[in-house]
Amino acid sequence: MSVHQETKKVTTQTLRAMKQQGEKIAMLTAYDYSMARMVDAAGVDIILIGDSAANVMAGYTTTLPITLDQMIYHSACTARGTTRALVVCDMPFGCCSDPALSLQAAIRIMREGGAEAVKMEGGAAIADAIKGILRAGIPVMGHLGLTPQSVHQFGGYGLRAKESAEADKLVSDARLLADLGCFALVLEKVPAGLAARVASEIDIPVIGIGAGNGVDGQVLVLHDMLGINKDFKPKFLRRYADLNTIVTDAIGHYVQDVRSGDFPNSDEQY
Ligand code: KIV
């Protein structure tokens, strides 16, 4: 495993240059200080405080219940553990439709949450909100395809933009987000060919999750790629560790040692 030695801060300009130079962008989620320190030290370029915190940190089945205050808490913890990566925080459900409300939310995420950019789910429908946030000097990352905050509208978490009408709408939304001034775009769970087409047609970095290898970078949920949740096994996920087994075994070992009287031994006491 290679650990990134360079400590130069990643900015939205760095990411644009990476796309121009054909250098792939690595993005991961984090939600707390200790994990953020490890993710940052390993050389990830963008750390996302995803609203997937609702799933992996809080145990909800959708991302809808997480509140703005909770996102700000996770963002502030993560930002304190990050020195190199760009810190991007999701705008939670309900914050993106009304321009005035979304501007207030974005300002709080930056000011109290220590984020350096916000991510917003949606295309043309939220263009006015995006414009207002950009006008305030806050960088915006777009998110199209499977946008989990719309799960009830979609009727599930299946592949998006399989049909040409939805694919055409996605391409026009992606162009719009780039034209508005978003600095990057996440494409989630869409056909690889479509994602590659979008990445070649717009000049901002396109980061995929379940969108194939023809895009400018990849993002995964940290808990999924570390194998913390045994049951989540979508086709696009590659597991880089089996932390569920490692952590459960270690804790089981500790319980045994306490029960048998083996811990603490004479070297582990004062
Ligand atoms: O909330 C999240 O973790 C995300 C990523 C899956 C892109 O939006």
List the helices and strands and how they pair.
Layout: H1 12-20, E1 25-29, H2 33-41, E2 46-49, H3 53-56, H4 68-80, E3 86-90, H5 99-111, E4 117-121, H6 127-135, E5 140-145, H7 151-154, H8 164-180, E6 184-188, H9 192-201, E7 206-209, E8 217-220, H10 222-225, H11 243-260
Parallel strand pairs: 1-2, 1-8, 2-3, 3-4, 4-5, 5-6, 6-7, 7-8
Helix pairs in contact: 2-4, 5-6, 8-9
Give a description of the structure:
The protein folds into 2 domains: 3-239, Phosphoenolpyruvate-binding domains (TIM Barrel, Alpha-Beta Barrel), CATH 3.20.20; 243-270. The chain is α/β, with parallel strands linked by helices. The chain is built from 11 helices and 8 strands. The radius of gyration is 20 Å and the shape is globular. 3-methyl-2-oxobutanoic acid binds at residues 29, 48, 50-52, 90, 186, 188, 209, 219, 221.
Number of domains: 2
Q: How far is it from the N-terminal to the C-terminal residue, by CA?
A: 38 Å
Mean of all residue-level pLDDT scores: 97
Q: Report the sheet with the most strands, covering strand number, pairing sense and barrel closure.
A: 8 strands, parallel, barrel
Number of strands: 8
Helix content, binned percent = 40-55%
Strand order of the largest sheet: 1-2-3-4-5-6-7-8
- Low-pLDDT stretches: none
- Ligands in the structure? 3-methyl-2-oxobutanoic acid
- Beta content comes to 5-15%
Quick one: overall form? globular
Assign the structural class, choosing from mainly alpha, mainly beta, alpha/beta, alpha+beta, or little secondary structure.
alpha/beta
CATH topology of the largest domain: TIM Barrel
CATH architecture of the largest domain: Alpha-Beta Barrel
**Superfamily (CATH H level) name of the largest domain:** Phosphoenolpyruvate-binding domains
Question: Helices and strands, in N-to-C order?
Answer: HEHEHHEHEHEHHEHEEHH
In the CATH scheme, the class of the largest domain would be Alpha Beta
Number of helices: 11
